[in-house]
Write a structure and sequence with these properties.
By secondary structure, the protein is mainly alpha-helical. Helices cover 60% and strands 4% of the residues. Among the domains are: 86 residues, Serine Threonine Protein Phosphatase 5, Tetratricopeptide repeat, CATH 1.25.40.10; 49 residues, no CATH class. 35% of the residues are buried. This is MYND-type domain-containing protein.
């Protein structure tokens, strides 16, 4: 009889949740580390659903304030009110990456430019380089408003600050602005120096990714025989959001043709168009130059330019320079 009574007590002891015995500061430390290093939102949420205590502590501002870009990388396919609430919780916790991500989603996808720009501004005030660059693109285009709302000087100032913080796209954009005299006094030599610096940083980043990740990793993509980094989570969200057809752009509005961007127009003829073929549109000079180098160079059909160049013996590099200048003149 005594033996039979011991067995149930042993089974009961095996079901004890030892997580409840851990001190809060240790659990907070583990969850903060997880939120900053998770490779996707699912990795973080799979831990939170383990028990009520982890769920409660995992949604604490101390944890959400440390959430990294991959933890915040909600996909367009899985967008829901719950995903929106999660990002808002992170914003309220002071997470500047969440301010930027939710700001971009609200500005372009949810068609709430006032709230979106406000959230990006909160991140920009704290020197968030991608937010500064995105606000510069908005200023260059007058996005969310009228053509008269363009502010080229403000766009250059925001772009310069983002470039100073190391944002490669901003560095490239600033180089083109200086080279073309767009919103800033023209300085061709300084513009070319910044463009070379942007290309060097981009190449260094691609090489680091190639050396640190195994071949065939999902975070890399094959492009013209070279492996480069995948597009950023927020830009991927924008691209997938509009490609999925869940929101149809108003008649006359176009998407940026650079595959790594995802920005749509907020009014007709907001983006500049290729001055040669007239078939592609770009939200910025940076996107224009990137797409030309990666794809549009092979798709554009300036037949008269190529034939004329061949007739007078102009090299490929000179033709490329003429084409990019034609694009930038738009």
């Amino acid at each position: 009889m005594t033996h039979l009574n011991k067995k149930p007590r042993l089974e009961k002891n095996l079901t004890v949740n030892h997580i409840d015995d851990l001190p809060d500061d240790l659990v907070f430390s583990i969850l903060r580390k997880l939120s900053s290093s998770a490779s996707c939102p699912a990795d973080f949420f799979n831990v939170l659903i383990t028990c009520k205590r982890l769920n409660r502590l995992g949604l604490h501002p101390m944890v959400l304030s440390r959430a990294g870009t991959q933890t915040l990388a909600v996909t367009a396919e899985k967008w829901s009110d719950s995903a929106h609430r999660f990002l808002k919780l992170c914003v309220n916790a002071g997470n500047i990456d969440a301010c930027y991500a939710l700001g971009m989603i609200r500005f372009y996808c949810l068609q709430n430019p006032v709230s979106g720009a406000s959230l990006m501004a909160r991140a920009a005030i704290k020197s968030h380089a991608p937010a500064l660059y995105s606000l510069s693109v908005i200023q260059f285009n007058g996005s969310g408003g009228n053509k008269s709302d363009k502010n080229l000087r403000a766009g250059v100032a925001l772009c310069a600050r983002s470039a100073y913080l190391g944002h490669v796209d901003a560095l490239r954009e600033l180089g083109h602005c200086l080279q073309d005299g767009y919103g800033v006094p023209r300085d061709v030599a300084e513009g070319r120096r910044l463009l070379i610096q942007a290309n060097a940083r981009e190449l260094a980043g691609s090489l680091r990714s190639y050396l640190s990740l195994k071949s065939g990793d999902e975070t890399l993509t094959e492009l013209n025989g070279l492996q480069v980094q995948e597009i950023r989570p927020v830009n991927r969200f924008l691209k997938d959001w509009f490609d999925s057809g869940r929101v149809v752009l108003a008649e006359g509005l176009r998407m940026c043709s650079h595959g790594g961007c995802g920005r749509p127009e907020t009014r007709s003829h907001e983006f500049r168009r290729c001055s040669v073929c007239g078939k592609v549109n770009y939200c910025s000079r940076g996107c224009q130059a990137l797409d030309w180098r990666v794809k549009h160079k092979m798709e554009c059909s300036p037949l008269d330019l190529w034939v004329g160049a061949a007739a007078i013996g102009v090299g490929d590099e000179d033709v490329d320079a003429v084409e990019v200048e034609n694009h930038a003149a738009r």
